[in-house]
Design goal:
Blueprint lengths: L1 H20 L3 H21 L6 H14 L6 E3 L1 H10 L3 E4 L2 E6 L2 E7 L4 H5 L6 E5 L2 E2 L5 H8 L6 E7 L7 E6 L1 E4 L3 E6 L3 E6 L6 H12 L7 E5 L8 H10 L5 E6 L7 E4 L10 E6 L6 H11 L4 E4 L7 E7 L5 E10 L15 E2 L15 H10 L2
Parallel strand pairs: 11-12, 12-15, 15-16, 16-19
Antiparallel strand pairs: 1-18, 2-9, 3-4, 4-5, 5-6, 5-7, 7-8, 10-11, 13-14, 13-18, 17-18
């Protein structure tokens, strides 16, 4: 079956990309005819029975995944599942995943979810789900394998950088409820705000937290913690960046479509009154997190501390299809005020502090990155 998938994917990709190389549409029609002929031969001659519907799904997905790690085809079942998840409460593991070189990669585990509690980390490569090898699966097929009833168990096998042996995690699926903003006053003088995702009301919550924290007369500054934040809504990243800026460009998007070429600028008024700001990032900080960190770094408004971010600098749009499925398609790329692209590069911290010991835990005694930031603010 894998051979069929590869052959179909190759043919579809050939049809897709050769459109740019030939002005004569007849060549494209010849390729389509050839594709149909190959399908027929496979159906007639292949050693096993072939599910042509699945083969076509694989071909469509092959075209999309050849473009970049984030474009993908969703069957009607997968699309329905995704819509359930974006409603804010769902059963699962609590991880954001993507594809890299045909392997499912953890972009970020979400705070206080089964995945983060079990110890999955950003950058882990998922090689097996229960007894099923992930290599050769599409992203949506892998996501479907990870879904299941709340309370059911799943075994995830990963490969991790600098670790020779595979690591096995036994995880129980839970209802995932994402609380995107948490805050506290540390040492009676540092406002700590942890943002775990960019949801519809994240900016409103952050403003309320800042308004409460700045009432403290001894407040020296703020720490905005974006570690293991996989991103979310662009509109929220813009609003949150704007809270700390007086003026200037926040982010721009560029595409071959003129309508997607846009720039966003800060409005006058830093709601913190210019207090010192440190932003914490790590390899699990992606997309919208990188927009905020990158904009504040370029404007020299914040000290960026931690590890290099993930490098997801592209805009995806969910486009519904007639069969009630959908495609997730990259339609533009993000650019920082400096003009640099985040894609594949990420945001480099001003001060690099590598995550410490094996018992490292966010906002705890073992959180050497946060402890470094606190010492910096306290002089």
């Amino acid at each position: 079956m894998n051979m069929i998938k590869k052959l179909i994917i190759f043919l579809i990709i050939t049809i897709f990309f050769f459109q740019k190389g030939f002005s004569d549409n007849s060549d494209i029609y010849k390729k389509i005819d050839l594709f149909g002929e190959v399908l027929e031969k496979i159906n007639q001659e292949y050693v096993d029975d072939v599910d042509q519907s699945k083969s076509m799904d694989a071909a469509i997905n092959g075209v999309l995944q050849s473009l970049d790690p984030y474009s993908a085809y969703m069957t009607p079942e997968s699309f329905e599942g995704m819509q359930t998840e974006t409603s804010g409460e769902f059963g699962g593991l609590g991880i954001e995943v993507g594809m890299e070189a045909g392997v499912v990669k953890v972009i970020s585990p979400i705070d206080n979810t089964p995945a983060s509690k079990a110890g999955l980390k950003a950058g882990d490569y998922i090689v097996k789900i229960d007894n099923v090898q992930v290599q050769g699966k599409t992203l949506m097929e892998a996501v479907d394998l990870m879904r299941g009833p709340v309370g059911s168990s799943i075994e995830i096998t990963v490969r991790r950088r600098d670790v020779k042996k595979a690591i096995i995690f036994n995880i129980t699926r839970e209802v995932i409820q994402v609380q995107s903003v948490k805050s506290e006053l540390i040492n009676n003088n540092i406002g700590y705000i942890r943002l775990t995702s960019f949801n519809e009301n994240s900016s409103e919550q952050i403003k309320k937290k800042i308004d409460k924290l700045k009432k403290n007369i001894d407040l020296k500054g703020y720490i905005l913690d974006l570690r293991n934040n996989p991103g979310g809504l662009l509109s929220q990243a813009i609003k949150i960046s704007d809270f700390f800026l007086e003026n200037g460009e926040i982010v721009s998007t560029k595409s071959r479509k003129i309508s997607e070429n846009r720039k966003w600028f800060a409005k006058k008024g830093d709601i913190t009154g210019g207090k010192t700001l440190i932003v914490l990032i790590n390899y699990g900080s992606a997309s919208a997190s990188e927009i905020v960190a990158g904009a504040l770094k370029d404007h020299k408004r914040a000290i960026i501390l931690g590890e290099n971010s993930y490098g997801k600098g592209s805009v995806q749009s969910i486009i519904p299809l007639q069969n009630k499925g959908a495609i997730r398609l990259t339609i533009a790329k993000y650019y920082l005020p400096s003009g640099k692209s985040i894609s594949e590069v990420g945001v480099t911290p001003d001060i690099e502090v590598i995550e410490g010991s094996d018992d490292f835990k966010f906002n705890s005694e073992t959180d050497n990155q946060l402890n470094f930031a606190l010492k910096l603010l306290n002089g």
